[in-house]
Amino acid sequence: MKRLLRPLLLLAALTALLSVSVFADSGVGTGFFDIGRADGVTITPDGSGRIDVIWGDSAEGDTSTLYQDSEKLTVKLSGTEAGKHYFILLTTGDSVNPTEENMFYVDQQTATGATTTFTVFPKQGLAESGEMTSANLFITSNADGFVTRKITLGYANSVPYVEPDYILGDVDLNKTVTVDDALETLQIVGKLNNSPTETQLKAADVDKDGSVTVDDALGILKYVGKLIQDFSEIQA
């Protein structure tokens, strides 16, 4: 009996350790995620940091960029005209235009120079606990010739996630993003690497268009050279 008991105890301990390692790669996400982009607009979320996540309890699925614990967005609009009024509107859903029914946040600034900054802090209208909301951020103005911007984003409130088993841009899977990863991407594109793993293909697709191309290698080089701060800047 004692001989049987020891292996069982070892198996139980190993199972517990494996469980710890699994839960270390999962969590509960609250904050803005998958923030789009537009010409002349820079959006910076607050919070505790940026992480790549897969929503739910499975490692299968599309990767989202979560800004954990973010509640506010700093929105900088360049090319503004002093004395003109600029407006930010937040709407829920996939609406093409803001309406009285879907709009839940409005802010207005009068420009004093070439750059106007908003602090977007919607206290209501976002997701209830355990849910996610799709939203649109519109920027418009009474300035002559101003083109309204529309930026998509999401908000999660205490939604479970799993961290993917790769870092976006880390094509050689060594936990860092360097010039070598751009070269590895080019080898995949040029068929010099005929057997990339599924994980490598996901890591190489930094612009998230569903394929690995020269554009992805250029995106990695821009990231390494600090021409961009985040791969979301080159994602459609």
Blueprint of the fold:
Layout: H1 2-24, E1 26-33, E2 41-45, E3 49-55, E4 64-68, E5 73-78, E6 85-92, E7 103-110, E8 115-120, E9 131-141, E10 149-162, H2 179-189, H3 198-204, H4 214-224
Antiparallel strand pairs: 1-10, 2-5, 3-4, 3-10, 5-8, 6-7, 6-9, 9-10
Features:
Type 1 dockerin domain, seven-stranded antiparallel sheet, alpha+beta, 33% strand, Immunoglobulin-like, three-stranded antiparallel sheet, 2 domains, 4 helices, 236 residues
Short description:
The protein is an alpha+beta fold. The chain has helices at residues 2-24, 179-189, 198-204, 214-224; strands at residues 26-33, 41-45, 49-55, 64-68, 73-78, 85-92, 103-110, 115-120, 131-141, 149-162.
Polypeptide structure, described:
The chain is built from four helices and ten strands. The longest helix is centred in the first third of the chain and has 23 residues. Helix 2 packs antiparallel against helix 4. It is 22% helix and 33% strand. About 6% of the residues have low confidence. Strands 1, 3, 4, 6, 7, 9 and 10 form a seven-stranded antiparallel β-sheet that branches. The chain has a three-stranded antiparallel β-sheet with strand order 2-5-8, with no helix packed on it. The chain is α+β, with helices and mostly antiparallel strands and 236 residues long. The chain has two domains: 137 residues, Sandwich (Immunoglobulin-like); 56 residues, Orthogonal Bundle (Type 1 dockerin domain), CATH 1.10.1330.
